[in-house]
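Lab notebook, page 48
Experiment: co-folding of the full assembly
Goal: obtain a model of how the components sit together before planning crosslinking
Operator: M.T.
Materials (sequences as entered):
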Amino acid sequence: ETGVTQTPRHLVMGMTNKKSLKCEQHLGHNAMYWYKQSAKKPLELMFVYNFKEQTENNSVPSRFSPECPNSSHLFLHLHTLQPEDSALYLCASSQEQVGTQYFGPGTRLTVL
Amino acid sequence: DAKTTQPNSMESNEEEPVHLPCNHSTISGTDYIHWYRQLPSQGPEYVIHGLTSNVNNRMASLAIAEDRKSSTLILHRATLRDAAVYYCILRDTGNTGKLIFGQGTTLQVKP
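Observation: model returned without errors.
Model output:
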């Protein structure tokens, strides 16, 4: 499999649930990103990892917890979310932090 | 972060050229002009980028004004698969190189 993959593609969860989003890149890149795309709003950068180290947290609430165990995998752990967190969550990777970013297809999250 | 201004939407006929404008009057000398597009139900994809000179690749051409305060993405022959939201982004690769997405231009292509 090539490119950036994300699982699951769709997720419905209650406000008390704990779930995780997974991103995997097969491009040999060193930087990975989480973005949030809410309806009618531009993409918002959430987190940046470079060589497994977090280099940016864009004031994201602590109910979103990222994890980057290696340069190929990125997780977003979710707990006690709110309905307004319903959105498309996109993962991206790049060779270096200033390189072209390649995006996955996203996970469509609905919080009930 | 430097800001860009794009029309909310544009229409084109299939197999005709499309010129998508972008204004960036506050661009700095180290800002590159990047274009990404997002097809329906997909993540954004890179289209093209440039600094000062016009650029061509297999997807599109990028025409940059001499004063760099505006640019135009050119799709030479629009197809139905080119219907997407097109984002013009200024990126300072001398810093963290963050991509700051705006609302973009929604391009409709009519058969």
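Interpretation: The longest strand of chain A covers residues 18-25.
Next step: discuss with group before ordering constructs.
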